[in-house]
Queue: 3 jobs
Job 1
Amino acid sequence: MFIDRKFPNTRLRRLRFNSHISDLVAENNLSVNDLIQPLFIKENLIGTESIESMPGIYRYGQDSILKEVEELLELGIKSIALFPVIDPSKKDNLGKEATNNANLICESIRKIKQEFQETIIVADVALDPYTSHGHDGLLINNYVDNDSTLDILKSQSIVLADAGADIIAPSDMMDGRIGIIREALEKANHKNTILLSYAAKYNSKFYGPFRDAVNSSSNLGNSSKSSYQMSPKNKNEALHEVAMDINEGADIVMVKPGMPYLDIISLIKETFKIPTFAYQVSGEYSMLKLAIDKGWLDTDVMLESLLSFKRAGADAILTYSAKEISKEINNK
Ligand code: PBG
């Protein structure tokens, strides 16, 4: 392919001469259509509350979230992913609040849909914001039990779909959950509800700030999610996970975290050629944002990091920087 290309017949700098030329030949671009903004909603909160380990990111009360969604829509961001911070008194070892059809998330989905019907709402399925032990599933003899967790994830998914969630996103990494949830959605006549599977979700320390944000770190303590999330040592296993989830009825698969796992995004996209999303997780965001705020890195590193996802093959990106980046994109 590269044989016989010789200087000066070929001068690669010709196409870098100015930004108009280089834009014309750009292989990848980031658009607001690619961005999904994760949002934290906190029960009984009036107004907003900052999150220490996530500079520039807030928890929203049930009213203030509406204003935020409106601002996002004005900037062209039509998709949001909601994460609950529930009243600690509602956490128990079964995560029962997750299946309450009037819980914080269900009520918030209804309110947002009522005001802004066009918003695409991604609802996370996992028990960690609801359990007193902070795990994504049920603990039996100190082990997260797969099959009994499936039942409760199924109910959680149905209350979310009933409330109006467009996309159900299981992030729990139990085996078989996509199939069980797909079957339940079909039965409940939610035929167009999209399943976005966190198919390749690694057991990552980059989730630290998120766990602060949803107040699950103290519940989890020193306990690890390594018995269900993937080991960072593995790559082929990600293909296995994705193949299973596609067979079980996933419409979109996701890789998480993002930047340390670009090889996985690329491999999945090349192998399966299906819609593939990436999650630039809390720790990735906070690292970059803190260095930007300190003046140690230029603001543009955020956009550069998101372009790396596009290059790797991601169709859309969940990123805490969605709002800020959309302003930059709109101004260019
Ligand atoms: C929970 C969940 C986590 C994230 C999204 N959903 C944390 C975890 O698995 O412990 C992390 C997102 C982030 O770090 O931004 N199932």
Job 2
Amino acid sequence: MKKILLVEDEKGISSIVKAYLEKEGYIVFCAFDGKRAIELFKEENPDLIVLDRMLPLISGEEVLKNIRESSDIPVILLTAKVEEDDRIEGFQLGADDYVTKPFSPKELMERVKAILRRTSADSSNILSFDNGNLLINTENYSCKVDGKDISLTNNEFTILKVLFSKPGKIFTREEIIAIAFGESYEAYDRAIDTHIKNIRQKIESNPRDPKYIKTVYGIGYKAGEFN
Ligand code: CA
């Protein structure tokens, strides 16, 4: 289920929009000021943000700037101002869409759905784990850890993909070889160990205490489980 961060200090508007979003099946986190918005963004890793401009503590613009430093998450800006200049300024700040108050909640729902349709089509080949800290792109065989591009060999990538096809499931070395390279592929079990060691060097912040690829002694390996 998609998670939405709703940042709106007017309690009345917030509760109406929250109810509409929940009716559409989204999980909604509410922040009533800009500081909390940034905290919740980091904690909950939402799929989209509905962000009011005028907020206590930190303004909507500042929240957006802060979030844009690390993320291209879709953001719909809410504003009470109607001038065209503001609309342009909102887009320049990196908002994906812009809704002026007073707005119809139904219209906002349409915008939310349209943006999520667009972005989930773009990201259907990207598997996200550990709150987005590990991204595996199965289309172009690339991988990102903590926002940094990681260069993996084809074999390393394929092994990583096999393990993360079922996080928590234990794969024996023979299974990894069979699934990754095919039954006829001749590889020594220990070759897998070498690949795993190399992958860990690249993706784990502490390869001696790995969180993404766990060793199951006497059996094989498994991908770490994240919620
Ligand atoms: Ca406001």
Job 3
Amino acid sequence: MSKVIDAVSAFMDQLVAKNPGQPEFIQAVHEVAESVMPIVESTPAYRKAKILERIAEPERVIIFRVPWLDDRGDIQVNRGFRIEMNSAIGPYKGGLRFHPTVNLGLLKFLAFEQVFKNSLTTIMMGGGKGGSDFDPKGKSDNEVMRFCQSFMSELFRHIGPDTDVPAGDIGVGLREIGFLFGQYKRLANRFCGVLTGKGLESGGSFIRLEATGYGTTYFAQEMLATRGESIKGKVAVISGSGNVAQYTAEKVTQLGGKVVTLSDSSGTIVDKDGIDEEKLAWVMDLKNVRRGRISEYCDKFKRAEFRPNQRPWDVKCDIAFPSATQNEIGATDARTLVDNGCVCVAEGANMPTEPDGIDVFVAAKILYGPGKAANAGGVAVSGLEMAQNSQFHQWRRDEVDTRLHGIMRSIHDNCVKYGEENGFVNYVRGANIAGFVKVADAMLAQGVV
Ligand code: NDP
């Protein structure tokens, strides 16, 4: 055991030295290294081929200037990124994030996570991620369009349906993907599956919009089933009020659960009566059409309460779905959730729980599904969208939903296969090892590239 600990520490020392100022990337790699080092240490071929060292180094990083004109005619300059992390098992695949906090280290963490997540989906996709420090909040549709066109004017030469296929993430939804796709098509003179998350009218897939939230809920359902439980009758807290949060709320409600919170970066709304289908439709219009703030919920639904600058983790619940952003659950939040009786945490967001928080969940032996497994439904349906685009065909809604459900079940089974110890499933270890082995074996087969 101490040999493994020493190996992790030696590996991390050189990673930290090589990647200064990238705390999220270091955090993500450390978690995977801890899980997979026993396998690396006991597999001489992995060690000799320096698989871990290579997997933590992006194959390619593209950084570019994105100049655009705002509505006053003033020039704005943002920075664009695409991290092409690993293509051992398929074309680079992963979302674009538009948010002021975007930087190289943040996107490297997301691209790194994406490699293992994509591997888990059973679809042949490599890992990548990209985005910009552009903030779509408060911008007009025309400003967002001009930004997207400028961003794509550089990105288009690096992507392609068999090379690198971006999708959405924070700040990049249907509207942004539409503008990005329009500009790609104009520049490349090709209608193809170069982006996923497109609108249904532009070659998108049914259920892609819903996929991450639905998939995370299906994953929670699978975890609960291992203890003879289900979502029916359970109280759920959800953070965020964007794409993932909205469709998690929809599926939890459809399965008989009661959702009592949503949030955004200004605070949390608590509705003890439950955010039912009708209230959720109002939220979707608020966030996706009127582009308002979640606090407005309490003006409309008077029995609900707004808690400024607070997260939902101290609201009593059975299940928690962190669905906003990274590092939103610390050790104290995790302890509060466990003490209040929470039995299941399914991560819709990427790396929303800090390492100390994960330790609390694992020590308490609750059902804890890490993002790279629990939220893989989004990229899985993106993979299905690529398959449909290559056939110039659109599958039926129920057909895609059934496939999504099957994929989430298979990801869950794989986590159990690699993560079960003495009757307890450590989903972190299970997801990391299952995701790693497939990519590592492909890298071995392809030589030193
Ligand atoms: P959206 O942009 O649709 O929504 C993001 C939500 O999270 C908003 O409510 C936003 O509030 C809130 N949020 C964002 N940043 C912060 C912050 N720093 N602090 C507090 N709240 C914040 O994004 P998505 O729903 O698509 O993504 C949410 C999470 O899910 C991300 O971690 C993403 O990586 C992950 N994910 C998304 C997938 C997808 O298919 N879209 C797939 C897999 C994972 P505000 O409006 O105030 O910023």
